[in-house]
Amino acid sequence: MVTVSDQQSVRLLTLNDPQRRNPLSPALVQGLLAALDTAAQDPAIRAVVLTGAGPAFSAGADLEFLKQVTAAGAEANYAHSRELMRLFHRIYTFPKPTIAAINGPAVAGGAGLATACDLVVMSEQAQIGYTEVKIGFVAALVGVILVRAVGEKHARELLLTGKLVSALEAYRMGLVNRVVPAEQVLEEALALAQEVAANAPTSLALTKELLNALPGMGLEDGFRLASIANAWVRETGDLAEGIAAFFEKRPPRF
């Protein structure tokens, strides 16, 4: 369900169920969680790119799951929901930068998967939408990160209408970082990942921790946490190497 390949220091994870438009089936969710755990533990991997095989990024819910969901029972449904929560949380808080390469439609949970990534590159021909309300679902898990990504008014519009929006509209809302021709999506995402991966690993991980924590903090607590991070990073080997490389006029060897 998930294929893995490496491009130098970047790990490419491809959702690989193209006949069904890469739905978030239990097998795919487990495959992504396992692949992310492996990437997190590999020091040679500095960034992760997610994309979809075939014409879609991800169509969201597994149709077989949808047929059974209303009769599955509370315990089974809660267990399924928690696994999806684990996946979105894992991507959002992943210690290494994550980039989504939206090669085609990203719908419902598939849109959430992309939204959880740090950066998003989208095909100019693709659409994205949080369509859960159209069939009686609630984009509850996705909503947690969508409000952070685009602010309350855009999140309300997307979640209450359930509409699909174009790549340019998604860019206007701040959902995506770059919009490129379809044939350049993966190339652009990998290049962006390499650019990010060239930076100091400890700096990237600490920056992500701060970005995750600061929106929920008041001004004083935020500055207090930032000052601790500022002081702590001065003791790291990455900073020592970065300063040495700067004065020696050479690329740093992180």
Would you kindly provide a written description of the structure presented here, covering whatever features stand out?
This protein is of the alpha/beta class and 254 residues long. It has helices at 26-41, 63-68, 74-92, 109-115, 140-150, 152-161, 167-173, 185-197, 201-213, 219-233, 237-248, and strands at residues 2-7, 10-15, 47-52, 98-102, 106-107, 119-123, 127-129, 164-166, 178-180. The protein folds into two domains: 2-197, Alpha-Beta Complex (2-enoyl-CoA Hydratase, Chain A, domain 1), CATH 3.90.226.10; 201-248, Lyase 2-enoyl-coa Hydratase, Chain  A, domain 2. The protein has eleven helices and nine strands. Helix 1 (26-41) runs parallel beside helix 3 and helix 4 packs parallel to helix 5 (140-150). The two termini are 33 Å apart.
How many domains in all?
A: 2
Q: Enter the CATH topology name of the largest domain.
A: 2-enoyl-CoA Hydratase, Chain A, domain 1
**N- to C-terminal distance:** 33 Å
**CATH level-4 homologous superfamily of the largest domain:** 2-enoyl-CoA Hydratase, Chain A, domain 1
Number of helical regions: 11
In angstroms, what is the radius of gyration? 19 Å
**CATH level-1 class of the largest domain:** Alpha Beta
Oligomer, anyone?
Answer: single chain
Structural features:
about 15% strand, alpha/beta, 2-enoyl-CoA Hydratase, Chain A, domain 1, globular, 11 helices, Lyase 2-enoyl-coa Hydratase, Chain  A, domain 2, six-stranded mixed beta sheet, about 250 residues
